[in-house]
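$ ./design --mode recover --in tokens.txt
reading tokens...
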């Protein structure tokens, strides 16, 4: 072998290595060097075809076509170049060109693949009758090809289900046929058949995962549903809107921050794709979540986005009463809600809203009674059970709360919120070791909840384990640096560690975030005394006296 021939082979090897590393532009430069050598026609065709593939990899369709056509000018029957030209024209919606290429390919080589391309082009051009006529001319062997049969199923409304089942008789694992049949059965509510088809399909198909997630949600297996939705989104976060159902599953396990993030993505998809049919429902759920997150202004924006002609408009007006409550329009809002309730006692949204109104007013017994009525109407609602548990704790009815928790844990052991409720009970009963054990179980299930790290730090401070408390509260601040009580609790940890200068820094930060809380000023004053800084002592003493005067005036 000559040195020149050896150099050419080395360049070809290098181009393949670069392609494998996805360094496509460098691979293109190397292949152009190969073309500089004296190549026989067969070699040139393959190199030009490879150049076309590389240009296709960087979405440079015109240059890719140019290279494939150069290859075809040498060998007009080069199947790979013809196929790639077909795919580019099909993808760029130049369907007549794609059809012309498909016909040429079938004339040269009557293969399954070429007839499949021919049918694809005809169907894309809405030439359904031509496609059926072409199918009828095929040999029986070709008519039994699953991919060809699947194309015919897409244009055979009356016989579609029959054709799809015929495909599965030939190949039970045909993914798209299984998914389409799952869709048909899902719309009929035949969930056992849906599961069967989805299991037969490729377990990486996003729509199959979505249907399984919906079924898990209906079974109240919300954690499993969330897992499946997330996997479906990982595979397809653009062509289908899986985010809305994910948001609803998060709501069902009371992960409201995660629900809001998913919902924002879902709303954005509706806006980008101009899908107005379902956007009111998304705005309504957004308003509902934002109310629970104590963001009334943002909630009002969402609820006011709902059109008057929408079926959700009247329900949105109910939620607006909650915002009125939060804006201190208490009497008018509660009167309106109770008036609506006297006329309609089986409206879950109204019951939920009225119960939350009572809760905001600290009328815990009335709120408990109302949530119990809501739970009677929807006995499988995790949200209502969790709300009831927390209200019973607020009402100091710990025995009934524990009874609900025990019943709940038999069904839903992996729900983080239940461990937060247990922590609250044990903390109030001053059983700090049990409270710490419960909050640790919460954090095993949800490592991104700032409030739980704060609660753990509070418990550890009470147990005088200041070093671990400091580490936990640091996690809370890192996750949410805008909460004053986190800094105040960190100051407590540093006081316990006798690091008073650090304690004062955090104490000052808590006052800066929330200057109205007198307890923060008391701690800062006590720390200044421990440091012995007279200037700081006098400064915090004056702030404390001013706050105490304001409190007396308010009383």
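writing sequence...
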């Amino acid at each position: 072998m000559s040195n020149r021939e050896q150099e050419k082979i080395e360049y070809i090897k290098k181009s393949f290595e670069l392609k494998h590393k996805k360094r496509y532009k460098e691979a293109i430069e190397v292949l152009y060097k190969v073309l500089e050598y004296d190549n026989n026609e067969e070699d040139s065709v393959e190199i030009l075809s490879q150049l076309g593939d590389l240009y296709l990899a960087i979405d440079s369709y015109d240059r890719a076509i140019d290279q494939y056509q150069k290859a075809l000018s040498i060998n007009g029957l080069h199947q790979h170049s013809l196929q790639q030209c077909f795919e580019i024209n099909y993808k760029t919606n130049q369907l007549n060109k794609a059809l012309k290429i498909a016909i040429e390919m079938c004339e040269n080589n009557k293969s399954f693949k070429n007839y499949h391309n021919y049918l694809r082009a005809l169907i894309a051009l809405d030439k359904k009758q031509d496609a059926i006529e072409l199918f009828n001319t095929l040999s029986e062997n070709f008519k039994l090809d699953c991919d060809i049969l699947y194309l015919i199923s897409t244009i055979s409304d009356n016989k579609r289900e029959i054709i799809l089942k015929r495909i599965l008789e030939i190949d039970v694992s045909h993914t798209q046929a299984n998914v389409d049949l799952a869709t048909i059965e899902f719309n009929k509510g035949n969930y056992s058949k849906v599961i069967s088809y989805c299991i037969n399909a490729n377990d990486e198909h996003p729509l199959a995962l979505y249907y399984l997630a919906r079924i898990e949600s209906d079974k109240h297996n919300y954690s499993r549903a969330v897992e499946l939705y997330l996997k479906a989104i990982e595979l397809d976060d653009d062509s289908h809107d899986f985010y809305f159902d994910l948001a609803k599953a998060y709501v069902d396990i009371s992960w409201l921050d995660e629900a809001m993030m998913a919902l924002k993505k879902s709303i954005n998809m509706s806006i980008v794709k101009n899908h107005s049919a379902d956007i009111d429902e998304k705005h309504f759920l957004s308003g509902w979540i934002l109310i629970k997150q104590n963001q009334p202004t943002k909630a009002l924006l969402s609820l006011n986005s709902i059109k008057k002609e929408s079926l959700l408009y009247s329900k949105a007006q109910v939620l607006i009463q909650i915002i009125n409550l939060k804006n201190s329009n208490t009497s008018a809002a509660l009167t309106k809600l109770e008036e609506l309730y006297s006329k309609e006692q089986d409206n879950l949204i109204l019951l939920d809203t009225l119960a939350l109104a009572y809760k905001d007013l600290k009328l815990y017994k009335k709120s408990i009674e109302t949530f119990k009525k809501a739970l009677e109407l929807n006995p499988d609602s995790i949200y209502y059970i969790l709300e009831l548990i927390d209200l019973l704790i607020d009402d100091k009815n710990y025995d009934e709360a524990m009874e609900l928790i025990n019943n709940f844990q038999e069904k839903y052991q992996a729900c983080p919120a239940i461990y937060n409720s247990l922590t609250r009970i044990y903390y109030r009963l001053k059983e700090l070791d049990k409270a710490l054990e419960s909050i640790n179980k919460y954090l095993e299930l949800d490592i991104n909840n700032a409030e739980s790290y704060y609660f753990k730090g509070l418990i550890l401070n009470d147990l005088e384990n200041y070093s671990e408390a400091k580490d936990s509260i640091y996690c809370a601040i890192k996750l949410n640096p805008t909460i004053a009580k986190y800094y105040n609790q960190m100051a407590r940890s540093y006081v316990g560690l006798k690091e008073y200068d650090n304690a004062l820094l955090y104490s000052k930060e808590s006052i800066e975030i929330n200057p109205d809380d007198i307890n923060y000023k008391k701690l800062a004053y006590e720390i200044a005394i421990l440091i012995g800084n007279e200037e700081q002592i006098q400064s915090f003493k004056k702030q404390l006296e001013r706050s105490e005067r304001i409190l007396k005036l308010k009383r």
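exit 0
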